[in-house]
Each structure stands twice: as C-alpha cells, then as structure tokens.
Amino acid sequence: LKLSAQRARFSAHAVASHAAAMGGDTPSAEVQAARDKLKARLGDVRTGGKGTARRTHIAKHTNHAADDKQLQVQLKRLGCNAIPGIEEVNMFKEDGTVLHFSAPKVQASVASNTFVVSGHGEVKRLEELLPGIINQLGPDNLMNLKRIAESFAATKGGSKDDDGDDDIPEVGDNFEDVSKK
Fold it and tell me: Is the pLDDT of residue 28 over 70?
C-alpha cells in the first residue's frame, strides 16, 4: 500500500513536470491578465499562508431596538417614572437657538437627579417660537429678546419711511407715463 501511494505521487509529479516542460499547462496571456486583475482587486483575503481557507467576513448588524431596551432597563433601575401631560420641551442654547421637542416622552427620577426627554427634537431660532415662548424665557435670555425687539423695531421703522411708495398712485388717462417715472 505504501509503494502504490509513492508511485502515484511520483507519477503525478512526473506528469506535472512534463506538462510544464512542454508548455501545455501555462495559461494564455488573456487568462493570466484576468487572474492578475482579480488578484489585485481582491488582495489577500486569506488569514494564513497558501492552502489555508479564506476568512469569512461577518457583517455586524446593529440593533437599535436592543439599545433602546437596555436604556429603558437602566432607567427603570434608577427609578425613572413617566411624567404625563407635557406638550412641549424647549432647551435654550447660548447661541440663541432653541432645541424644541413637541409631544416628548418625559421621564424623571428626582432622587437620582435624572431627567430624560425622548422624542424628535428640532433646532429652531428663538424668533420662530416667540409668541408662545415669552413666559418660558429666563433672565439669561433677556439679551436675546432685546436684540430681537431692536431688529423688529428697525424693520418697522424702515417701512414707515417708505409708506408713501406703498400708496396707490393716482393715474390719469395714461398709466404708462406714471410707470416710467
């Protein structure tokens, strides 16, 4: 049995060396170019040397529902309870913009000084929310309110000077003469 395995190995080696010497086993230039192109594109995808299996690429899928569930578990551990009846939450930034949540889910734990506001938040300018937000403004936002009032007064004052232009002109018989003026 040993002898036949050695003969088979020897004969396979002899056939391979004979084919290589005769030039019958070499690929054409076209095939070799395609192999080189493929090798350059894929690169080394083996984890070991020649003869080892290629590595399997496992795509990582993130599950946001699992993250949300873990967050809820931690909030429950802190003792956060939902606060019903909150219609909106406004967080004022130093640059004069407001982080506005409409119909958020608010949870709080006073003992651990933890407040959680979850929902869709939008960054808006203070001017966009102004009529209904005045009672929420604190002393630190008075400068922003003064700036808004000054810009509003400046635009109103500028329009009073141009009041004569907005009136309907008196047109006689020919309106084209009036429009050319």
Answer: yes
